[in-house]
Amino acid sequence: MTKEEILKALADAVITGDDDEAVEYAEKALKAGIDPQEAIVDGLAKGMAIMGDKYERGEAFVPHLMIASAALYEGMDVLTPHIKVDPSNRAVTGVIGTIEGDVHDIGKNLVKTMMAAAGFTMIDLGNDVPIEKFITAAKENKADILSVSALMTTTMTGMDKISELLLENGYRDSLIFMVGGAPVSEQYAKSVGADGTCKDAATAVAFAKEKTSKLAPANERWSDAKLSITKTKYKDAVLKKKAASKAGSNISLETAKKVIAEYEKVGTKKASKMSHKDRVFGALGDKKVDRLPCYPLACGITRKFVPASYKEYATNPKVFSDSAYAAVKYLDVDTYVGLTDLSITSADVGAGVSYPEEDTPSTTGHLHEYDDIVIPEIKKGTRIYNHIQAGKQTMEKLHREEINAPFVAFHEGPLLTLTQAMGADRVLHDMSTNPKEVHKALERITEFVCDISTQFFEEGAADAICVDNLWSNNVIMSADQYWEFDGKYVYDSQIPVFKKYNAPYVIHNCADAVHFDIQIRKFGTALYSYAYYEKNRSKGSKNYADLIPAYSDICCMMGEVDPIQFMNNDEQTYANIRNDTVKLMDGVLNTLKENGRQSKYVMSTGCEVPPEGSLMSVKTMVDTVKEVGEDMYKKIIG
């Protein structure tokens, strides 16, 4: 074979995801005397670039990229040891990982793969990475790039702590600090002191190349003398960050006290004409209401009314129910969603779980084989049994005459449970390479998930159930793939359970580009809780103006307000929240009217308010809806 033929074969091996051929042609490249670096750049990496282009055009999805990347790494494992290393011209070195408490690593893996294909040396710390480990790894590897990922609003706040530690240790000027994930905006990246964030993996590579090209040599940047100078340079900045962190470390507790004090002094603002329950179910049925219902997804943060730690909130039914009762009483929200974390069902089928005192529980480690999945009986000792008992106690408290608010239970759907237990990258890869095993596991887990929904209804532990069906995302997988590996299991097995109990099917999905037709139209979903990411609008992220015309004939939408701003507790934040709330409500009401609807919308945040956020910020949104909502509703709807 000629040199050109070998290089093309290497690229084709990556495109087709053929591990064996990637190894075979990598070995042939060495035997033919082709420079191993050239074989990587003009062979393997070229194939990965083609797959990246297909991904950007929507012609390939995450499972295809994972298979391609596996072939890429197999070929690189053969070629890399033979590259002649020039210490004066080392490859760009990056440290990458998903932040502590967050096990979502699809985006992180894509960035890592595309950077590796571009010739970077990537040190992958994995997911659920302790903050200090990022700092240590950056120093040990004399990193040019530190890239931190998060999907959950409840974990991304740790990025600011990483920034603080980079300053405190004198490392900040030694590297490019990048942050990423669906909820991470350019504004947020700037606020935590990062160099930037990028909308996708390809853009991240271009950004990293441009930024690292301006760095001094690694040995110079990471010398003790340079670090000492940088440490002194940022001394004042560190002190300010620490002071701000100390002042804000108990924002949720201090604002809880303030909300309670205000309630005890003046009660709730503006007495309502309708009960919470009538307003919420009225909106579900598109009935005339006094105003739109309002419930920012303030779940774990409400534990501070009790007060209690997050661990207590997630494990003690009384603490959970007390938190829900306090939320409706003191904030005057229209409902309460029983979200604690996304590791409940995965922990029960065999994965480990950690319980930080003041952060959301998360899955620790993944099962090695699908056969390791154990489907338990729903009984004392399982997390879901504990969760159901919490729901029963919450129902009793929220149905009291003075409250009269509905309770929406929350648990994970089939594919989300499986990916939490086995690891998302593993499952998405196996969808193409080992689909029978994935289906076999999904059949068992779906039965368990259906038993959970049944148990909630049988024990009267919920007025409605919200199911987190996360993986409906047209960037991660095609509509056909989503239907095959999640949609049909929900449709064939779980939806009939809801119909049996005449209960509305409710979905929460904070993905950024959802297969709405399946999750709303096909499922017949009654209430859909969604997030909107303006930066991903071109890829399919939709807002109320898109969703109400398309789906309001069958579905009530809920979401959209950015929850990250609720981390702050100052007058400017309150003003921003008021403006955003009024603007959204005005747009929603006018769109409802244009489409012949009366009330099919719940004012909410797109994802959960972080558990250390400001309850005064939450109250600001609720009070704004109460203060102007009735007049606005009457003026627009009539």
Automatic annotation (TrEMBL):
Example GO BP: methanogenesis
Record has Hydrolase as a keyword: no
Top-rank taxon, per record: Archaea
Pfam families xref list: B12-binding, B12-binding_2, URO-D
InterPro entries in the record: Cbl-bd_cap (IPR003759), Cobalamin-bd (IPR006158), Cobalamin-bd_sf (IPR036724), Met_Synthase/Corrinoid (IPR050554), Meth_synthase_dom (IPR036594), UROD/MetE-like_sf (IPR038071), Uroporphyrinogen_deCOase (IPR000257)
Domain B12-binding N-terminal: 1-91
SUPFAM superfamilies, alphabetized: Cobalamin (vitamin B12)-binding domain, Methionine synthase domain, UROD/MetE-like
Recorded GO CC terms: cytosol
EC number assigned by the record: 5.4.99.1
GO terms of molecular function: cobalamin binding; metal ion binding; methionine synthase activity; methylaspartate mutase activity; uroporphyrinogen decarboxylase activity
Record's keyword terms, sorted: Cobalt, Isomerase, Metal-binding, Methanogenesis, Repeat
Gene3D superfamilies in UniProt: 3.20.20.210, Cobalamin-binding domain, Methionine synthase domain
Annotated B12-binding domain residues: 91-218
PANTHER family given in the database record: METHIONINE SYNTHASE (PTHR45833)
Family, per entry: Belongs to the methylamine corrinoid protein family.
Protein name: Glutamate mutase sigma subunit
Source lineage: Archaea, Methanobacteriati, Methanobacteriota, Stenosarchaea group, Methanomicrobia
